[in-house]
Design brief:
This protein is about 20% helix and about 30% strand. The chain has about 120 residues and is of the alpha+beta class. It has one domain: 2-Layer Sandwich (60s Ribosomal Protein L30, Chain: A), CATH 3.30.1330. The chain has a 6-stranded mixed beta sheet, with helices on one face. Strand 2 and strand 3 form a beta hairpin. Helix 1 runs parallel beside helix 2. The protein starts with a strand and ends with a strand. One of its GO terms (cellular component) is cytosol. One of its GO terms (molecular function) is deaminase activity. It holds the Pfam family Ribonuc_L-PSP. This is Putative endoribonuclease L-PSP.
């Protein structure tokens, strides 16, 4: 099965040796998206702003494949502080509708670039 790199000018480039996403067949696997603003290369202050930007980056990559949030079947949310779960969940809920994708969410010791939230998704076209 062939693999195609997923990228977008409206999402930040990878900050390491990985692809922003890979499409294979009807499946799209997006790497975790930090809240990095692709225009500035910087993250906004605060977990809410970073969550919004993270989801904007996810949306840009989904759009590059012809997918939308409705096509997402699995998400993983990484938090620097689990106390931010409710705030991030509210922003997350604004992008997804029932039937909601399966999801895992947990606190990690640290995220790259000092991020407060990182979100990865799997979509089926």
């Amino acid at each position: 099965m062939s693999k195609t790199v997923v990228s977008s000018d409206n999402a930040p480039a990878a900050i390491g040796p990985y692809s922003p996403g890979i499409q294979t067949g009807n499946m799209v696997f997006l790497s975790g998206q930090l809240g990095i603003d692709p225009a500035t290369g910087k993250m906004p202050e605060g977990v809410e702003a970073q969550a919004k930007q993270s989801l904007a980056n996810v949306e840009a990559l989904l759009t590059a494949t012809g997918a939308t949030f409705a096509d997402v079947v699995k998400t993983t949310v990484y938090l620097a502080d689990i106390a931010d779960f409710a705030a991030v969940n509210e922003i997350y809920a604004s992008k997804f509708e029932a039937p909601f994708p399966a999801r895992s969410a947990f606190q990690v010791a640290a995220l790259p670039a000092g991020g407060l939230v990182e979100i990865e998704v799997v979509a089926a076209l």
